[in-house]
Design brief:
Elements (H helix, E strand, L loop, with lengths): L2 E5 L11 H15 L3 E7 L2 H6 L4 E8 L2 E9 L6 E6 L21 H16 L11 E5 L5 H6 L7 E6 L7 E2 L1 H6 L13 E2 L2 E3 H8 L2 E4 L2 H6 L10 H6 L4 E3 L28 H13 L9 E8 L5 H11 L5 E8 L1 H13 L4 E5 L3 H10 L2 E4 L9 H7 L3 E5 L2 H6 L5 H5 L6 E3 L4 H16 L1 H13 L5 H14 L21 H14 L1
Helix pairs in contact: 9-12, 10-11, 10-16, 13-17
The structure holds adenosine-5'-diphosphate and alpha-D-glucopyranose.
The site of adenosine-5'-diphosphate has 18 residues, from helix 1, strand 13, strand 14 and helix 12.
Length: about 525
């Protein structure tokens, strides 16, 4: 049993701005069920405090001259321990990364350096908790300094660093590096220095024992100039320590048969319920309630990564076809305004909700026929998997996790019963529109359409396999700490009650006793 400190800047259900939060919930839960001793560390943002329950102050300690507290609770009632790091810098409303003006909080470097330093103190059992980590698993730039700082310790846990998105790197001027009082040994081109600036991301990439990213394709892509964001050289150099483990999805929260956000449940054998979801969504968004018109959806951050610009460019021609569109998202004002323009122009055909709305995101996945993910790059992406689970055919670009998780509709894949969505290559409105045409053609063939729906719904996107892979990685690093039953490849296909689960339950009982 490995003691794993999982460091993250967001975790569902406490605070979520994107997929990192979903992963920071599901992966620790899965590892916990596999019998590992996981602690999830994240900042005690005001919003997180309001969602967490039954917290107790477990530790008060000093980190680089600042007083912090660890509030301890559980990620979920039967889940791993949650450690919320309390400090005045986290006690503010709204988004964890930016202020109401959509600009990054001016003290982000300080706030996340503090998270990293506190993680080191906790991992090294210097916070008075009588707990020492075997593995510290950091995520994205906000925890990038953890492997860097730990590299300076004589005795240290093994470090794993997961890149969820290489495009956000936490870059700051050298003066900030000095102001943070970081050890000077870290300042080199082999360390956190990146073209004269300080890079939190490089702290993870240069110093972690193992680097992972969230899909095999993205692991390859980031070693190229096109996707490497200037870090491709370093990543190529470290390719032996770099691997891609595709994300799973939480198969309970995202299950149309039991999803409490939905007006009607459905599953692969009872698809009828999907029609009621479509109608409810059309009514909710003010669209004409028509069962036969193909309804397309989009949910996500309104930024270029997600290809929303391609979608907007395609809008006039898209609306020449008899379709309806449902959008949920927030992000760059230009994209928000453009979407509002289209919904004002076609109020009965284009529904737009700006903002973050968990319930509506489930209702859209359930209610639409087709889901758009025309991303320019996509480390993994979760919505294309939610879509397949909800009988919604995704249209995705052939990048990253999208190409790893969607099987394009072709005569061959259809015949083999493998097709689950539509994949296109070129990042252009023209390619996107061509793919929409393919989707509309298939939509006319009700039998083929529902066959593809069912294929998607029956696919296994659960965390089981991926969590096994992380565990195998931990065990390469700390074989003595991780007692894995067998290599993941040899594990039997996930069954309803895997034996490891029983073991985990027993262990929890012992803990509670
Ligand atoms: P990313 O992390 O790059 O934003 P992912 O596809 O991995 O992309 O994950 C995004 C997650 O955030 C999904 O669970 C998606 O449903 C959710 N999400 C994104 N925007 C919204 C929104 N406006 N309202 C509700 N959920 C959203
Ligand atoms: C990032 C990526 C997304 C991925 C998510 C969770 O935000 O943009 O593709 O699914 O992290 O790993």
């Amino acid at each position: 049993m490995a003691r794993v400190l999982f460091v993250t800047s967001e975790a569902y259900p406490l605070l979520k701005t994107g997929g990192l939060a979903d992963v920071s919930y599901s992966l620790p839960m899965a590892l916990h069920e596999l019998g590992q001793e996981v602690r999830v560390l994240m900042p005690a943002y005001r919003a997180a405090l309001s969602k967490a329950s039954e917290l107790r102050c477990a530790a008060l300690f000093e980190v680089h001259g600042q007083n912090v507290a660890v509030l301890e609770g559980r990620l979920a009632p039967n889940g791993p321990l949650l450690w919320l790091l309390q400090h005045p810098g986290y006690d503010r409303p709204g988004n964890p990364y930016m202020g109401p003006n959509a600009q990054p909080w001016p003290d982000n470097a300080e706030r996340f350096a503090l998270l990293c330093r506190a993680a080191v103190e906790l991992a090294q059992d210097r916070a008075g908790l009588n707990w020492r980590a075997d593995i510290v698993h950091g995520n994205d730039w906000q925890s990038g300094l953890v492997p860097a700082l730990l590299s300076l310790e004589a005795q240290r846990p093994a470090t794993v660093f997961t890149v969820h998105n290489l495009a956000y790197q936490g870059l700051y001027p050298y003066e900030i590096f000095q102001r943070l009082g970081l050890p000077h040994q870290l300042w080199s081109m082999h360390g956190v220095e990146f073209h004269g600036q300080m890079s939190f991301m490089k702290g993870g990439l240069a110093y972690a024992d193992r680097i992972t990213t969230v899909s095999p394709s993205y692991a390859q892509e980031i070693q190229t100039h096109e996707f490497g964001c200037g870090l491709e050289g370093l990543l190529r150099q470290r390719h032996e320590d770099l691997s891609g483990i595709v994300n799973g999805i939480d198969a309970e929260q995202w299950n149309p048969a039991i999803d409490l956000h939905l007006p009607a449940p459905f599953d692969a054998d009872h698809l009828e319920g999907k029609a009621a979801n479509k109608k409810a969504l059309q009514l909710r968004l003010g669209l004409t309630p028509d069962a036969n018109v193909p309804l397309f959806g989009f949910i996500g951050r309104l930024v270029q990564q997600k290809g929303i610009d391609l979608l907007l460019k395609a809008m006039p021609q898209l609306l020449d076809s008899p379709v309806q569109l449902a959008f949920l998202g927030s992000g760059e004002p230009l994209y928000e305004q453009s979407l509002l323009y289209w919904s004002r122009r076609f109020p009965r055909r284009v529904g737009v909700v700006l903002g973050f709305n968990e319930a509506l995101s489930h209702q859209i996945e359930a209610g639409v026929d087709v889901f758009f993910m025309p991303s320019r790059f996509e480390p993994c992406g979760l919505n294309q998997m939610y879509s397949q689970r909800y009988g919604t055919l995704p249209i995705v670009r052939a990048v990253g996790g999208l190409v790893d998780t969607v099987v394009d509709v072709t005569p061959e894949t259809l015949a083999a019963g493998k097709a689950s969505g539509f994949v296109f290559n070129k990042a252009s409105a023209k390619s996107l529109l061509k793919t929409v045409k393919r989707a509309l053609a298939l939509y006319q063939d009700k039998a083929a359409w529902s066959a593809v729906q069912r294929t998607g719904m029956r696919r296994d996107f659960s965390w089981q396999n991926s969590a096994d892979r992380y565990l195998a990685l931990y065990s390469q690093l700390r074989p003595e700490a991780v007692a894995v039953k067998s290599a993941p490849e040899e594990l039997p296909a996930p069954v309803v009650e895997p034996p490891v689960k029983k073991r985990a339950v027993r262990r929890r009982k012992v803990e509670e006793a």
